[in-house]
Sequence to fold (180 residues):
Amino acid sequence: MNNDILKVLYSKEEIEEACQRLGKEISKTYAGKTPVVVGVLKGAIFFMTDIVRAVDAYVQIDFIDVSSYHGATESSGTVELMQDINTDIKGRDVLIVEDIVDTGRTLKFLQDTFADRGANSIKVCTLLDKPAGREVHAESDFIGFKVPNEFVVGYGLDYDEKYRNLPYIGVLKPEIYTNK
Ligand SMILES: O=P(O)(O)OC[C@H]1O[C@H](OP(=O)(O)OP(=O)(O)O)[C@H](O)[C@@H]1O
Ligand code: HPA
Ligand SMILES: [Mg+2]
Fold:
């Protein structure tokens, strides 16, 4: 699996440091509040578990499963809701935890959905932001790293449902997806 990686962008240690930094920012923002932290499956699985443990504030956690890439390197353009949260978020402070914001479609879908349900506030923490990929307006409040316009995998991020279990984030060799 490691042989399929062209270069490592962020090591396990750099990701851990980013989680600690973001955890401190989030703790300050939500001091005295109890936000509902919503992890976006499947990509944000590891980031979500690391980030909530770096936060020193009361939080409730929940998960939503949405999908639009279906194993490919380009968005299908349609965000499908696979599994919803269980929490009633009306009047609540919601923190969305994403692995990556690329075209912005997934994040915009989630922000619109939670706004329609009457959330009191909606903020976004993403490990990776890829501004060059943006097709719809969607901004994050807490950002780990700004990434170049390359397809990245690892630490939850997949290509064809693989590579999520890499402990670091890297760029896949182009022949892996062009030879398919
Ligand atoms: O800004 P966008 O272009 O919408 O891309 C970002 C979204 O795409 C990926 O999810 P994907 O649909 O691949 O589902 P997955 O998390 O289960 O891999 C990623 O985990 C983000 O949720
Ligand atoms: O660069 C990416 N890698 C993996 N999944 C993704 N979903 C959106 N962008 C990406
Ligand atoms: Mg994916």
